[in-house]
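Task: sequence in, structure out. Protein: Phosphoribosylglycinamide formyltransferase.
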Amino acid sequence: MATAKKTRVAILISGRGSNMASLIAAAVEPEFPAEIVLVASNRPEAGGLATAAAAGIPTLALDHKTYPSRAAFDEALHAELVAADIDLVCLAGFMRIFSAGFVEAWAGRMINIHPSLLPLFKGVHTHEQALAAGVRLHGCTVHYVVPELDAGPIVAQAAVPVLPGDDADALAARILVQEHRLYPAALALIASGRARLNGDRVVFGNDVSRAEGALLSLS
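Result:
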């Protein structure tokens, strides 16, 4: 019986790549439906590049400061992804906003993990935003990337309670644990075809349970 072709994934990072590491660890399992074939960064000094290389994954550093424009950097990155025959791009702490042309070129083939329960608290400093708003639940979201920042169709979310006495660091640490669980689970759903885009929404196959589709965890 022929083995199903795995989804070829590139992970884009700008720093230590802790979510990258969780994806790499998940993809080591033989039954995982995706393979990490490239880790790229816009910062040559990004610590995650060494982590990926140690795992035997090809790495690429494209220093954005050496390009004359955002579009020129995006064109170079696009060419590298195409050359590597990438099916799906996972952003994991990639701290650059793409040009509309790049996002359109990878529409439906690029996902991101964001540290809030979107559509709440887009942008940066999400934990401070959540504390200032007085919410009782906070969390993380895996979503497709669209030209509008942090506004793409939601694949999966995980939540944690906001506890009395929480500060931004304590909240961030608890949410990071959930990010490391959520991102591989969401990637597996997409790579296996059990979650797919239908217009501006993500729909799940009949074999995905309600709990698995929600991927909601209170801890």
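The chain has a mean pLDDT of 94.
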